[in-house]
Design a protein that fits this description.
Layout lengths: L4 H10 L4 H8 L3 H9 L8 H13 L2 E4 L8 E4 L8
Antiparallel strand pairs: 1-2
Length: about 80
């Protein structure tokens, strides 16, 4: 799977994290997260860095969805968000 900047931004927001939260969870610097999120296409950078971000978000409940010939790439939660009472 090749992650994109928009997927990364959407995934982070979906779990309710700030960029600093993601940086901490992935054990990376805030500037690295900002640089990755600024990209509008397939993420470029060291594969280990991208892997750390992907694993941190997957551990938080994100499923990354590959694009195909009819739909673009996306993200979703692995389980429903609990409803507030």
């Amino acid at each position: 799977m090749r992650l994109t900047g928009p997927q990364l931004r959407a995934a982070r927001v979906l779990v309710g994290w700030s960029q600093a939260d993601l940086a901490s969870a992935a054990e990376l610097g805030l500037a690295t997260i900002q640089r990755l999120e600024a990209q509008n296409d397939v993420l470029r950078g060291m594969s280990e860095t991208i892997w750390k971000v992907q694993i941190a978000l997957e551990d938080a409940g994100i499923i990354f969805i590959d694009g195909d010939e009819t739909n673009g790439p996306g993200v979703r939660l692995s389980k429903p968000i609990p409803m507030a009472r």
